[in-house]
Amino acid sequence: MREIPLGSISGITIRADWSFLIIFALITFGLATGVFPQWHPDWSAGIAWVTAIAAAVLFFASVLTHELSHALVGRAHRVQIRRITLFMFGGVAEMESEPPSWRAELGMAIVGPLTSLLLGVLFLGLMTLGGAPVHIDSTDPRQILHTFGALPTMLLWLGLVNLTLGVFNLVPGFPLDGGRVLRAIMWGVTGDLRRATHWASGAGQGFAWILMTAGVAMILGVPVPVFGGGVVNGIWLAFIGWFLNNAALVSYRQLLVRDSLRGVHVRELMQAHLLKVDPQMSVSTLLHEHLMSSGQRAFPVQGNGRLLGMVSLRDLQRCPRDALESTSMADIMTPLDQLATLSPEQDAAEALDLIAHHDLSQIPVVQGGAVLGVVRREDLLKWLSTHAGVNAGGMTQA
Question: Which CATH number fits domain 266-397: 3.40.50.720, 3.30.160.270, 3.10.580.10, 3.30.2000.30?
Fold first, then answer.
């Protein structure tokens, strides 16, 4: 399983990518064996590990709060956000469409860093309420840190890391929040979302190359102002830069793809000549009489002129070989109420969003209860390559 379900908040599904487990383990290990033992040489391994685990959990709760702030402001501007995914580099609130205006984009973008900065101040404030000093201005700060208990130590780390996260996200490089703020401002000035995204994406790639260059320099032993030195830190910094560069490129390509599909109706792209199967047809009949000649990967199941469900190749593969004759289409189909569907007059950009969001290969096109055809992922790609001249390499990442 690539993603781990964590529940839902206000109807927003929360999931964790497998890479989230890696960074969670790395943060916990780094705190338990590096940071906390340096701050508290007298701590036992047990105290260090328990504090590290608690700090890592609260850090990712902070990341989730950051993403929820994006989602809630987005909902206020009628931007549908149904899922938040936590992964190696933090989290992402997955929008089903671009914000409707530059003001909506600005509000959604700026609230994330502000939330992280507020959390940082909150954690440091709670630390001082626990008896820790407000200012650490000794000539030997570690000597004061040695006097902290486990709770103030954890709160200090959480405060500093949230402040760092907030400041980092304000860097004006797309797709960081600061880059989205930059895009919103440019969008408001020019009135052109595509041009604004192009400029913000360029800024994001420029910042990414700074990170990668600094990382390589650190790997080679050259200390870098602000970032410091160290091979491990250099590798990590270069990796973050590489990720941001790819994310900036893909985000811009996605916008080009969506823009190219706007105004194109689903009816123009759908495959209308389909083999429709009866709900009582056996799996054996479909396999031996129709499958190879049809060239389809999914078959609409229709009764009395109305779509009842769909049968895919995967459904057929799950049927036991000794039950091919006795199993009907109705037994193995995905019923209509579990299917994503489109109407023929819907925008093709909406078809793209549905296919990408649900990781589908095709979606049935339905009107008046009857299936008119299907729109396939390959149909969208073919249209883009022949009509729009768009490199759609990033569309599956939407």
Answer: 3.10.580.10
pLDDT digits (tens, 9 = 90+) for 157-170: 999 999 999 998 89
Residues of the chain with CATH 3.10.580.10: 266-397
**What does residue 307 show for φ and ψ, rounded to 5 degrees?**
-70, 130
Dihedral sign computed on CA atoms, order 153, 128, 227, 66:
positive
Q: List, for residues 294-332, the tens digit of each pLDDT value.
A: 778 888 998 888 999 999 888 888 888 888 888 899 999
Long-range Cβ contact pairs of 160-165 (< 8 A, separation 24 or more): 160/120, 160/124, 161/59, 161/62, 161/120, 162/59, 162/62, 162/116, 162/117, 162/119, 162/120, 162/123, 163/116, 163/117, 163/120, 163/121, 164/120, 165/62, 165/63, 165/66, 165/90, 165/113, 165/116, 165/120
Reported pTM:
0.72
Q: Biggest alpha carbon distance in the chain?
A: 84
